[in-house]
Design brief:
The structure is a single chain. By secondary structure, this protein is mainly beta. It contains 2 helices and 7 strands, in the order βββαβββαβ. The chain has one domain. The protein is globular, with a radius of gyration of 13 Å.
C-alpha cells in the first residue's frame, strides 16, 4: 500500500513500512532502465500497489526485462533505496547527479537531504 508521510520538509509517498518511494529520470512510462546492480541498490516496487487514504494519482504497472511486474505512479516506475534503513528517510533523493527523486505528493522535486538521520 502507498501512503503519505512527512520526511524533512516534504510530504512524500511511502510504502506500507514508511520507506520513501523514488522515480528514476532515465526511465520511461513503459521501461525501467534500472537493472542488475542498479536494481540491487534501488529495489523496484513490486506491482500492483494500492493507494492508502489521501493518495491520489494514477497507479499502474510495467513488466521489467526479467519478467517481474513493477508498480508505477503517474507513468514513473517506483523504487525504494537500500540505504534508507528505516522509515522516514530519503537518503536517495537527488542522488547520482540528481537523477533519483523521492515521489512527493505535490509532484515537485523535493529538496536534497530532507531526511532524518534516524
Amino acid at each position: 500500500m502507498v501512503k503519505t508521510e512527512k520526511i524533512g520538509h516534504a510530504i512524500v509517498w511511502t510504502n506500507a513500512e514508511g520507506r520513501a518511494l523514488y522515480w528514476f529520470a532515465s526511465d520511461t512510462s513503459t521501461h525501467s532502465s534500472c537493472t542488475g546492480a542498479c536494481a540491487k541498490a534501488w529495489p523496484p516496487v513490486e506491482g500492483p500497489v494500492t493507494a492508502g487514504a489521501g493518495v491520489t494519482g494514477k497507479f499502474g504497472t510495467i513488466t521489467r526485462s526479467d519478467g517481474s511486474v513493477q508498480a508505477t505512479y503517474n507513468g514513473h516506475p517506483l523504487y525504494t533505496y537500500i540505504a534508507d534503513t528505516a522509515a522516514g528517510q530519503d537518503r536517495g533523493n537527488m542522488m547520482s547527479h540528481g537523477v533519483w527523486h523521492v515521489v512527493t505528493v505535490s509532484g515537485a522535486s523535493a529538496p536534497a537531504s530532507t531526511s532524518s538521520s534516524g
